[in-house]
């Protein structure tokens, strides 16, 4: 049987562009993982790792035109957005290089002997070591930032872990180009190119998470696909950490006072956020609690005007388009659900943005309207109109875990008036990032970022964006009573590598 | 049907001592978890939490005589050991109180806005919040330190998480007494007693890990029991972190030069470590690679002399005794396995310590001798005699993950001579703690401690002993563009709580 062909497809026409590769067989996956495993020592030196990450950014920038052209042809995301996404990915690679240089992520803790403790404390020195080969599952909606050269790859390499990336079928050509850039950067520093493996195909993805030499996995995608891989990771003879970002509704609460103060601004802002990238962001606001009454009506009207003016767009592939059209139609058919602007198919390939409204009371208890509490990927959101605070509380209590939760407050509430602080506190259990008077789309690459949240937002307590993402690919090890000459340099008293560390309870930087 | 009775049993006689409780029904578990969940706000204040932990230590010390008496009657571990274990547990509770006071575990990171980043960075403030109710599964072999008042409980409470503890059937009376002491301490600070729930019974343990309001679990026990609960935790509609310590062989490598230098000292030290607590430590050295030849022979002779002199002991329960006797017999019956001192039954209730020897070549490839690479709980170890370094490497490559790995080196090797550093490096992938010239029994409570290791040593990358154990029960949350008045006090610019934190990339302590 011939190997299955992997084609690059233009979502603007539905036509095949070129054959990029063939799907990886089990033997191919095994080869890629073994080669990556063998390449681990080449990543041991932190200075080399940091230089590699910076070269990777340089190479991606050098290949920008080709990368953006291929990505636009495969994803229809547009060259402006893709140019920005590539810049973000390069910024991210350099940020992780800085993290590698600093070495705080090694979390060095040294305790000298203490005979007064119960039991006595011997000489103990702890730091973190890389887990091994990381399987990275690319996202459909970010061909750069959450794919081959994205945050999982960057943070894994920063930790000292080779990666084998499972390319997303929506952008195989872009994946090959990006992997080539990363491999060239590796070769530039004498690192085997196998530190960045790339495989195509659904079955290859399953093989990958089951491979005995794969030590951890990072995933960005759907609840269905992510849960299947999470389950496979947990069912292994030796289970491995599976850091998956699966899905999120990203609730937004708009207070009565906020709507009264700036209905138009909020309506317009929401339209921009929910339709950004044709609604294909994991942090798209998918459920908005807006007050009933005149101010809320004005907000909905502003939203309608703004959404109606949004140009048609092309989704990442035709399967997603079909799912979007069907998902919107199924939701719109529910009792008491209205569609002030109808989302759905536009021509043979595009879709139009829209939104639905529903009385919040319909979501306050289990029932057929629970469908509205499931993510619908694409340019649509649900505005639930509430009568009072009790309805807001009731709806929030029914939400699954989220990446983000947002509240829009009036000027006075933002200064602490009323129960605004309680509302912020009530949103905290729901999400990994809480926003006030902003929109969740746009995930900054920064040390304090947290892009994760209670299940199904993520399958672990970790983040896939920001400096602490590197923690996912490490495990601590402690050396007890180990003579100086045999210790890793990171743990020697003299601190030859100049690492920030904690010694006998005191922090040294 | 009447509820199943929970009896305290004396392992020295096999006789029932007293009925302590009845097994918890599903409804009982639900009540305990809900009450613990409702009690969360009482743990929100760090000062109150720290005071509670210190009072818990005080109360346990005040109840010391009763606790030790009950524990000795149920476990036969002896009053000296149990007094020490209780002191360790109190030290641990106070150590976590200190960690709560300091607040470094909140991992506060603040980034002020930066428009030069790609994409621009808004105001982001991250810290860690408690996960919720933690299920704690007590260990058989540490009725205090890894049970009701042990490290999982102490670290969970330190994190702000209530616990529901599943008592171990080997010490139900001790569990009740310890829980009472912890609850009295809670009440002293106005905290509902439900922050420390206690349930008995196998089925209750399964119910617990499946309960929707249980947010995480800590476990110390066998591979079989731990894996079943890990699987249940992963299979939930909303999976939860399961931090299990399941089993460990704790390999020891003795170099030719070390044996030549101090065969007797090593043999005697090994005898002490492997028979400590009647061989019922999770860090018992269970596989020792010793050189063939005269020095190794001398080491084995010293080990034999010392082990033969170890008094008989009583295991924690009769099922363990049966498993130990059968496990030793099955191993001793393998080809080429000798028993210089035969371990096994002694009278109706006790066991005698012993050890087995085998040529290391028998362990170098898959076969029936793989049984020797499985933990055998009780006072027995396996000494594998190697001919050359290649055999050492071959055996090490076949080991599952371990809590500890130890090497004994000569004085010259300890100074870095020969390939000692390579040997230490080769042990690092095998374990969470690497020891040189020591014995793995004895796990100090210290910031740099790591008590965990690759599966099956633990099911996660975390530790159950030491300051970083608190990290298991927290998740990060980031506030974006949130006005000062609405931020948790921990994240305000003025740092009113005086927390160590990282602001715009610089660490403040």
UniProtKB/TrEMBL annotation, chains A, B:
Matching Pfam families: Aldedh
Signal sequence segment: none
Highest taxon listed in the record's lineage: Bacteria
Coiled coil regions in record: none
UniProt keywords, alphabetically: Oxidoreductase
InterPro entries for this protein: Ald_DH/histidinol_DH, Ald_DH_C, Ald_DH_N, Aldehyde_DH_dom, Aldehyde_DH_Superfamily, ALDH_KGSADH
SUPFAM superfamilies in UniProt: ALDH-like
Domain Aldehyde dehydrogenase: 7-446
Name of this chain's protein: Aldehyde dehydrogenase (NADP(+))
Species, as recorded: Streptomyces coeruleoprunus
């Amino acid at each position: 049987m011939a190997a299955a062909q992997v084609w690059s497809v233009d979502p603007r026409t539905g036509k095949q562009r070129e054959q990029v590769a063939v799907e990886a067989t089990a033997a191919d996956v095994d080869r890629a993982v073994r080669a990556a495993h063998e390449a681990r020592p080449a990543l041991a030196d932190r200075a080399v790792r940091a230089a590699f990450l910076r070269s990777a950014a340089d190479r991606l920038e050098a290949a920008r035109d080709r990368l953006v052209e291929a990505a636009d042809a495969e994803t229809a995301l547009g060259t402006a957005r893709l140019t920005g996404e590539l810049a973000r990915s390069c910024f991210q690679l350099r940020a992780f290089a800085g993290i590698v240089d600093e070495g705080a992520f090694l979390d060095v803790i040294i305790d000298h002997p203490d005979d007064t403790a119960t039991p006595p404390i011997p000489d103990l020195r702890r730091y973190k070591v890389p887990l091994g080969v990381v399987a990275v599952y690319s996202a459909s909606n970010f061909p750069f930032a959450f794919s081959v050269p994205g945050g999982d790859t960057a943070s894994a390499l920063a930790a000292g872990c080779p990666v084998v990336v499972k390319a997303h079928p929506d952008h195989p050509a872009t994946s090959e180009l990006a992997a080539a850039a990363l491999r060239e950067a590796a070769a530039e520093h004498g690192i085997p190119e196998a530190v960045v493996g790339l495989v195509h195909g659904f079955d290859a993805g399953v093989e990958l998470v089951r491979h005995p030499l794969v030590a951890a996995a990072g995933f960005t995608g759907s609840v269905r696909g992510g849960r299947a891989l999470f389950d496979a990771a947990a069912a292994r003879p030796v289970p491995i950490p599976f850091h998956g970002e699966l899905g999120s509704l990203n609730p937004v609460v708009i207070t009565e006072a906020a709507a009264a103060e700036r209905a138009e601004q909020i309506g317009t802002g929401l339209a921009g956020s929910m339709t950004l990238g044709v609604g294909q962001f994991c942090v798209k606001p998918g459920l908005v609690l807006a007050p009933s009454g005149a101010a809320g009506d004005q907000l909905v009207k502003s939203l309608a005007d703004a959404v109606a003016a949004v140009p048609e767009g092309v989704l990442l592939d035709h399967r997603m388009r079909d799912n979007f059209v069907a998902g919107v139609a199924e939701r719109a058919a529910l009792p008491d659900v209205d569609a002030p602007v109808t989302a759905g198919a536009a021509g043979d390939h595009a879709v139009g943005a829209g939104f639905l409204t529903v009385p919040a009371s319909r979501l306050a208890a289990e029932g057929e309207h629970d469908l509205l509490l499931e993510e619908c990927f694409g340019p649509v959101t649900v505005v639930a109109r509430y009568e009072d605070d009790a309805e807001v509380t009731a709806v929030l209590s029914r939400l699954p875990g989220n990446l983000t939760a947002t509240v829009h407050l009036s000027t006075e509430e933002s200064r602490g008036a009323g129960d605004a602080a309680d509302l912020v506190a009530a949103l905290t259990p729901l999400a990994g990032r809480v926003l006030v008077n902003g929109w969740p789309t746009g995930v900054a690459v920064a040390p304090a970022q947290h892009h994760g949240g209670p299940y199904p937002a993520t399958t672990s307590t970790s983040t896939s964006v920001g400096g602490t993402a590197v923690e996912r690919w490490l495990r601590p090890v402690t050396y007890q009573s180990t003579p100086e000459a045999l210790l890793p340099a990171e743990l020697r008293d003299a601190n030859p590598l100049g690492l920030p560390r904690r010694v006998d309870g005191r922090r040294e930087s």
